[in-house]
Amino acid sequence: MARPAPCPIYILRGAGGPINTLHFSCHGRDTPLLFSGSGKGAIHMWSLSIRRAERIVQGHSGSSVIWVNTVSSTDTLISQGRDMRVCLWDLGQGRSQLVDSLSTGSVGFCQCSMLETGSRTCLLAFAGQQTEEINIVELPSKTPVCTLVPDEKLGMVMCVKMWQPHSGGPVLLAGYEDGSLLLWDITQKSKLSQTKAHHEPVMCLTFDPEVQRGISGSSEKQLSSWILDRQNNLQLQDPVTLTNPGVSQLCIRGDGKLLASAGWDHRVRIFGWKHLRPLAVLQYHSDMVPSVAFSDHEDPRQRLLAAGSKDQRISLWSIYNEGPDTL
User: Fold this and answer.
1) pTM for this model (two decimals)
2) d(CA 92, CA 69)
3) CA dist., res. 149 & res. 151, Å (int)
4) What is the phi/psi pair of residue 55, to 5°?
5) CA 16 to CA 32: how far, in whole Å?
6) Once rounded to an integer, what is the mean pLDDT over residues 192-201?
7) SS3 114
8) Closest of 223, 225, 204, 195 to residue 213, by C-alpha
9) pLDDT digits over 50-61, tens only?
10) Is the dihedral of CA 279, 46, 105, 137 positive or negative?
11) Per DSSP, what are the bridge partners of residue 204?
12) Cβ(291)–Cβ(14) below 8 Å
């Protein structure tokens, strides 16, 4: 017998604008935090202990904040806005100080991707000023690493994801306006593989390095699933059919058991990641859901899913946390 659909355990209100992006920072913190970026330019730092905003930062001159992330073992917050800037913030000892920024030159909606390379250093990838250009820099020095431009016309860069394979240097996967996916070797500045995953622009993608498998979404009524073989070739798998078209974001839980999709139809859908079996449809929001994120709690029983909507609310859910044999 199917389980009844769960209800959110809490709703965070007061963001003052549509929620574009979410990021948890719970691991190793006394106070677990959820960061959100709004369409009005505000970054909220929500304390999950008291379930309210601990601090609010206005950092992109009122322009929409489309991506936020934190650097482990530091008090650094990184935010990206539609003002074509990436900002670095010092949050140490109660501060909310802007310490540096860089210009992306991009007017699109492509969110940055960050890859930590050391205790205090990371790579940052972002869409550049030219249509198909991806720039990668090292932070905090802002040293340019490389610029990736495909040989053919694929349209705008829509989404990017970096990771470090078990062997070799870092790689980057990019989704483009014409529906293509390209895998790049960052060290060699060369293309490793390419496939046409969608007929429409690739709106979002994510990848699981542990099983060498990824998934991407678009405005279509399906998700495209694909694997990376030992020769670094992208190979399409059976797609996942959706009830309604349009996916804003995809997120895999840290234990590799769940996949969440943020839908244009106001719903969040949960799948088992191993077989992509539909598990639940989370219904609460009254407008499209641009962002979903799983928390990084050390205790699996405390894991949360957050969904941010254009209705200016963030829903928090506790789902499938009972143990390893529940999926």
Assistant:
1) 0.94
2) 15
3) 7
4) -150, 155
5) 22
6) 97
7) strand
8) 225
9) 999 999 999 899
10) negative
11) 217
12) no
Exposed / middle / buried, residue 167 (Cβ in 10 Å: 0-12, 13-18, 19+): exposed
Phi, psi angle pair for 144, to nearest 5°: -65, 135
Model pLDDT, residue 115: 97
β-strands 10-12, 97-103 pairing: unpaired
Number of H helices, E strands in the chain: 0, 29
Residue 218 corresponds to which tokens in the numbers above?
């678009």
3-state secondary structure of 300: helix
Asked if residues 133 and 125 have their Cβ atoms less than 8 Å apart, the reply is: no
> DSSP strand E in 120-202: where?
122-127, 134-139, 143-148, 157-163, 171-176, 180-185, 190-196
The CA distances from residue 189 to 82, 178, 186, 229, 255, in Å, are 27, 22, 5, 20, 31
**Percentage of the residues of the chain whose pLDDT score is greater than 90:** 86
Phi, psi for residue 4 in degrees, rounded to 5: -70, 150
Token pair of 138, please? 């090292």
* Angstrom distances, CA of residue 288 to CA of 112, 147, 294, 309: 21, 33, 18, 6
* Rounded Cα–Cα distance for residues 107 and 60 (Å): 14
Distance CA 86, CA 64 (A): 12
Q: Tokens 């980057």 sit at which residue? A: 172
Distance CA(48)–CA(52), nearest Å, equals 7
For residue 53, which amino acid is it?
A: A
| Mean predicted confidence (pLDDT) in 115-143 | 94
Question: Cis peptide leading into 201, omega within 30 of 0?
Answer: no
